[in-house]
Amino acid sequence: MRAEHATEDADICLIVEGAYPYVVGGVSAWLQDLVTHLPDVRFALVALKPTAAPLAFRLTPPPNIVSIVEVPLAPVSAPPRALPARPMAAVADALVGFLATGEGARLHTLIAALRRLGDPRPTDILAHPALFDRLRQHYSAILPNASFHHYFWAMRTLLGGVLAVLLAPLPRARGYHTISTGFAGLLAARAVHETGRPAAITEHGIYLLERQIEVMMADWIGDQVDTGLDLERPVRDLRDLWIRAFTSYAAVCYEACDPIVALYRDNTVVQHRLGAAPERLRVIPNGIDAARFADLPDARDPDRPLIVLIGRVVPIKDVKTFIRAAGLVHAARPEARFAVLGPADEDPEYAAECERLVDELDLRGVFDFAGRVDLNNWMERIDLVVLTSLSEAQPLVILEAGACAIPVVAPDVGSCREMIEGRGETDDAPGGIVTALVDPAGTAGAIADILGNPARRVAMGAALRTRVLRDYDHDSIIDSYRRLYADFTLA
């Protein structure tokens, strides 16, 4: 179902940027699961996408998503319509002021100024002489030595996204729920300012930090000064414009949303550092339905232990570290077997490099790239699950391993340590071993340590299962959102 305008009131309006329903997995899979398991909640959906070009739905929205608004962030090309000069000057000032500060009061001023224009389109505003004059003043004040051409198009892109979000149809709902800061978070803040209804945010990762790193490493931004990844540098260039804009979106989103949800405790610390009020912070982890693994038999082979990495064959999963660790373990324990369970077609070049590394380390007889598999057909045979990812939020594979009482070796990224070792209050039994990043020797040592002590392996698997059942129960997580939404509808 697609709709340009939402015509039906909803309980909750979900706001998503660049994910659901256009992408499979990750946030999209989480949202699909959440909505499906709350059939009595009526959802509207605002799906932000890059352009107005048709984008195929890769997931079918459940029937309790009663309306969908697709919002392209890039302005649709159209001949501009005339707008009155004085109200447009106020809009131009408010746009530049909001990007500079991200304050809720500035957003309120901007929304009010836009409403005084009637029913403008982003292209009408972007083409207006009043905005061009205000941008020239802004350029002279902050970047007089940069290329005005680069500055102008950077600002046009940034302001185009802001205008797309602030002028798009806003579904009527009793509460709003954004799944990131950025443009989605800006729309949630707009909803609070315009409707007076509450909003929440659930961050799977920290969108602002991801955008900061992306901007610092970008080669498509002109007038760069080579300062590496230093985010606190004195030189002002176009990268500062982009970072300042995304910082403003995050600030106004955190100011408007309550609660501010993270998947694990360490990310609440980051959210607080980025401006989120500590009394609004809450942790609601992802959950797992452990019952789907309840009847699996134990088909492990004690004479040929199986160690697997569950994930895509892509650089972010650092499969090469797993392969190198396998080589070290194999030298000491030639009976051990290894497998990667996940698709290898996303980055064929990297997958080919991994295949060559397996050959170079003479692992071909004990190492299998199994591709996309049904985990239920594998979990009963796995002795140990290994992650070597460079970045994770809250890896589902650790929950899946724990549900099957399989210990885990994983790097200290995202919530891996919290999931394996617990949150520190009552946990005293680890469910595996946490390693350093990009550490084949450390990973191999952890694998050998667990495999070399069968009683410890069993104890670790049992500890991880206990933690998963207690802290990550799927029904309990769904109930957390049911209560959150109930609070919104009563507000």
Keywords:
Rossmann fold, seven-stranded parallel β-sheet, six-stranded parallel β-sheet, 45% helix, alpha/beta, 3 domains, disordered N terminus, 491 residues
Give an account of the 3D structure:
This protein has 17 helices and 13 strands. The longest helix is centred in the N-terminal third of the chain and has 20 residues, at 148-167. A 7-stranded parallel sheet has the order 3-2-1-4-5-6-7. The chain folds into 3 domains: 10-72 and 169-283, Glycogen Phosphorylase B (Rossmann fold, 3-Layer(aba) Sandwich), CATH 3.40.50.2000; 85-156, no CATH class; 290-472, Glycogen Phosphorylase B (Rossmann fold, 3-Layer(aba) Sandwich), CATH 3.40.50. Strand 9 (337-341), helix 12 (348-360) and strand 10 form a beta-alpha-beta unit. It has helices at 26-36, 85-101, 104-115, 122-126, 129-142, 148-167, 182-195, 207-217, 238-256, 265-273, 319-332, 348-360, 396-403, 416-421, 440-451, 454-471, 474-490, and strands at 10-17, 43-49, 65-72, 173-178, 199-203, 260-262, 281-283, 306-310, 337-341, 367-371, 384-386, 408-411, 432-435. With 491 residues, it is α/β, with parallel strands linked by helices. The relative contact order is 0.09.
